[in-house]
Every structure is written in structure tokens, then in C-alpha cells.
Prior knowledge:
The structure is a single chain. It contains nine helices and seven strands. It is an alpha+beta fold. The chain folds into two domains: 3-105, Homeodomain-like (Arc Repressor Mutant, subunit A, Orthogonal Bundle), CATH 1.10.10.60; 122-243, Immunoglobulin-like (Sandwich). Strands 3-2-5-6 form a four-stranded antiparallel β-sheet, covered by helices on one side. The chain has a three-stranded mixed β-sheet with strand order 4-1-7. It starts with a helix and ends in a 7-residue tail after the last helix.
Amino acid sequence: MRTEIEWVVQGIHEGFEGNLSIADFGRMARLSPCHMARLFHQETGLTPSGFLLAVRMEQARRKLLKSERSIADIADEVGYASLGAFTSRFTKVTGVSPGKYRRLSSLGSGIVDMVTGTEAPTYFTYGSVTGRTLRSDGLTREPVYIAAFPMSAVGRKATRCCRSGNSTDPWNIAHIPSGSWLIEAVSRTVGGGRHDVVVGQAGPFRITPGSVVNVDVVLSAPSKLRVIEPDRAQLGLAVPNLFNC
């Protein structure tokens, strides 16, 4: 990564709680704001504001999981003057509200939302997606984070996620409700060009009760990914460990 962009990345990590602007990003890089923005996107596949969002959401997630601070305090600590704005953004990015995220996390990482009031076996209520990831950068031992996103009612349903220990391992996402779903994957990479991550996308796929969909997801540079939910895609590209939910 270019030194100027590393300065911006470091500056965002150190000052994410502040009211950072495009002018601030330019000063960090010692470049004009427009030139810096072009370079940042070329180097990372993200806009500076998208990366800032990712860092803020990652910090908020960590605080929700590892502290007992109020959600209002956490919103302030990650740079949001308005609790409503923070709640809206967090919900759009992760699929659940901050309060629900904290409650679900206390039940364990494998918890899933069950259909209220149903006594039907899980197999007959949900479908699943299995697959493998393909990559050409040689980093087959690098873990891959895979998530399923609903195509409808985006932002109101929680994603289903999993982690593959390395790129050659098969993976499975179970307990996916009926509907159309998109699969996105992300993994870190080094020495493969201008980008720090490789990403992939497959679908949309139709999930029906009891169905098992098999897919191959090809990982490549972020610039080649056609995103359907920009905020979520940017978050995953910048902070892959959020997919380990």
C-alpha cells in the first residue's frame, strides 16, 4: 500500500471518534482531498468515508460485546453525536439493532433466530448453503469469512455467517429462512497487488425449506465485485472478522 494511504488508514484508526472530513483525510495524506480520495479507492477498493464507517462499526461491535457501557455512550465513543443516527447505521450494516446484537451475542455465536411459535423441525423450516472458495493468490491457508444476505427487507433481517479455517475447506451456512439470498465472502491477502483483501459474491439463490444450495465463490480484487448492499460490502472488505459471527 502507498505510504500516503497508510497515513490515512492510521489516522482513521487513531481518530475515528472525531468528526473527520474529506479535508482531514487529505491533510493526513499530505495531498489534495480529491487526489487522496482517488488513490485511497485505487489502493483499498473503498472510499475513505466507507473505511471510516467500517472502523466505527467494528469498534462499536467490540464495545457492545466486551463492555457494559450504555448504547448511547458507545455511540458517542465511536463518533456519533446522535443515538438515532448510530442505531440506524449499525442496524443497516449488521442487520440487527445494537441492543439486539448485544442480547444475541450473550447466547453464543451459533444462535439463530427461530420462527416464533413453530414446532416444525429445523430441517423443514430452513434451507442451507454449502460451498467452497476459489482463489488464485496462493494463500490457501488464509481463513475466509462467508455471509448470506437477504435480497428483500435488507437491513431488517440478521445475516447468517460462517468462517472457513482456510480457503480449501468446505463451508456451510445453515438455518437460512426461505427467500432470495446473496452470498459474499472475504479473505485477507498479501503480495497480490494493490489490495489487502480478496472478495467474492455469488447469487442470488432461492432458498426453500429443506433445500441445500451448493455454490463456488471465486475470490478476486474488490474492484471486480458488483456490490448490492454498499455499506455491508464496504464493512466486510475493510474488517473481515465481522463476518465471523
